[in-house]
Amino acid sequence: MTEKTFVAAARLEDVPPGTKIVVEVNGISMLICNTLDRIFAVRNLCSHAYETLECGRMRNGWISCPVHGARFDLETGAPINPPATMAIDTYEVRISGETIEVAV
Fold first, then answer.
1. Has residue 75 got a pLDDT over 80?
2. By the 8 A CB rule, do 30 and 90 touch?
3. 47 within a domain of the structure (yes/no)
4. In the sheet where 28-35 sits, what is the strand order?
5. How many helices, marked H, and strands, marked E, lie in the chain?
6. Confidence at residue 3, expressed as pLDDT on a 0 to 100 scale
7. How much is the average pLDDT of 85-98?
8. Which of 68, 70, 78, 87 has the most other CB atoms within 10 Å of its CB?
9. Paired residues of 10 in beta bridges
């Protein structure tokens, strides 16, 4: 089993509750999302239309694609409603002091 490597992605102060930011980690565009008193990390790409999710609405643990409205669970990446049928990539997150780290 390969040991996970965690990389610093953002500072907690950069992602207040109810907000999200775009970061790049190892060449991958990710969204760091703060909702439901948790920090989530997902790939910044809709699995349906391959559009970025950064302008999508985020509520109660999900994010929507701004193009067709497909919603995705931020914890599992699973699609919640059509037209998306495939999950988006999610990344394990840990907090180290004031730093948000993402597993790559």
1. yes
2. no
3. yes
4. 20-25, 28-35, 38-43, 90-91
5. 0, 10
6. 83
7. 98
8. 70
9. 100
Residue 14's φ and ψ, nearest 5 degrees, are -80, -10
pTM: 0.95
Phi, psi of 13, deg, nearest 5? -65, -20
- In a domain? residue 1: no
Give pLDDT, residue 2: 75
Give the domain extent around 45.
6-103
Asked if pLDDT for residue 19 goes beyond 80, the answer is: yes
Q: Which two tokens stand for residue 27?
A: 């060449």
- 32 within a domain of the structure (yes/no): yes
Can you tell me the distance from the alpha carbon of 30 to that of 20, in angstroms, rounded to the nearest whole number? Answer: 10
In this structure, what CATH number is given to the domain that contains residue 99?
A: 2.102.10.10
Token readout for 69 is 């409205």
